[in-house]
Amino acid sequence: MAGPYEIFVLIKQVPDQGSKAGLNPDGTIDRAKAKRMLNPFDRYALQAALHVKRTYGGRVTAISMGPPPAVEILLEALEHGVDRGFLLSDRRLAASDTLATAYALYKTVTHVGKFDLIFCGLQTTDGDTAQVGPQLAERLSLPQVTYCEDFHLDDGRLHARRIIEGGVQFVDCVAPALITVANSYHPLAYKSFRGAWRVQQLQRNPEELGKYIRTVDLDIIQADPERCGLKGSPTIVAATEKVGELGGNCSMYEGHAPDEMVGELIEKSNLKEFLVA
Length: 277
Ligand SMILES: Cc1cc2nc3c(=O)[nH]c(=O)nc-3n(C[C@H](O)[C@H](O)[C@H](O)COP(=O)(O)OP(=O)(O)OC[C@H]3O[C@@H](n4cnc5c(N)ncnc54)[C@H](O)[C@@H]3O)c2cc1C
Fold this sequence. Notes:
The protein has helices at residues 42-56, 71-80, 98-112, 132-139, 193-203, 206-209, 258-268; strands at 5-10, 13-15, 36-38, 58-65, 84-88, 117-121, 144-154, 157-164, 167-174, 177-181, 213-216. By secondary structure, it is α/β, with parallel strands linked by helices. The protein contains seven helices and eleven strands. The protein has a single domain (5-227), classed as HUPs (Rossmann fold, 3-Layer(aba) Sandwich), CATH 3.40.50.620. The strands form two sheets. Strands 9-8-7-10-6-1-4-5-11 form a nine-stranded mixed sheet. The chain is globular.
């Protein structure tokens, strides 16, 4: 099967780690107070999805599960050239662990329709488990290429290079397949002026925007609420602990030639005794 390809990319909104969100009394992240951002790892997945569309032709659909503000990252994806977005949002999803998340995303993906490739980020910066992509592939009975840092398609066959401990591995499989994209893949290109302008126009016209971004809930995707949220999550967080901020004095060496700066650093940091003459 040659292109065009039907491409799905899974993206998640995470708390901006620079925003000092803080924790709730029960130790969970206080997400309401945190600034929000697109999971940085998902930027590579987006780039990979858009690369397939631009190189081989096709359509890119971004899918996210999260509270209503997660629509922001779908708009951001549209600005980058994604064709449409689906947001799964439902209060019954609160407190989902990776098992429940992968189940809910599986139901969303099958609701959205046929696909050739699903791209995920490697991991998230909040949950940080790197489990959702592989769990979703298992549920969909798909071949999966994790830690993928480069790939090309040849008549529907995926040839990929993935990172393994101490080296790289070359693998190939036939689409449909799921790929988790490593952060050594190409960074996400800047959004185009045209894309940003288009989204601005869409935001002024909610009816038109609704044609590009759809919000669905558990009833629409026919997911079992018992398998979502806290009820569907066997993970127990026994305790969380706040770690102290890393402190320390910091001096900036600026305005000198590099060898002078290195000399100054060695002089001031008592490194001399460790250096072999
Ligand atoms: C007991 C418990 C309660 C939790 N309660 C909440 C909660 O109330 N609200 C909350 O937001 N989180 C909650 N979490 C965190 C949540 O379970 C995880 O963030 C979620 O399951 C995804 O796992 P992860 O972040 O480790 O994703 P990873 O497996 O590290 O993500 C890999 C990739 O999978 C895709 N992906 C992951 N999650 C999503 C998503 N939601 N939408 C689209 N793509 C996705 C992305 O492509 C991502 O790069 C809870 C976790 C636990 C253990």
